[in-house]
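Sequence in, structure out. Go.
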Amino acid sequence: MAYDEGTAARVRKLLASQRQVAEKKMMGGLCFMVDNVMCCTISGRGGMLFRVGPEAHASMLKKPHTSPMEMRGRIMTGFVRVSDEGTRTEAGLRAWVKRALDFVATMPAKPPAKKARKAGPTSTKAKAPPRGRVRTGLRR
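Output:
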């Protein structure tokens, strides 16, 4: 299931005043990075994920339309899942994006990830012969 492009456009508009915003397709959706730190994600399963920090995690789960973010059977403390009903209005989406931005602002900016090098020949040496007994001549 693809993420909702309409919600993506709304989030882009809210993040337009931020510096160092990047979008990455990951976790089945579209992730918005601020200063190379994950801020929020539009999920391909519906709803959104917001980074609120471990200290605010429990209190944010008491808000309407929220649930814990679970990945591979593990609860990801510091992230909450908000259903589409919680971000349907501009005020609702703005409030959640602000919460995520407020937390991300407390984190140090990460340097950009280094691009992986393409795999290629690592050495020009010839391969070593196979181990074990080497047969020579014809077998009788």
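Check: The first helix runs from residue 5 to 15. The mean pLDDT is 85.
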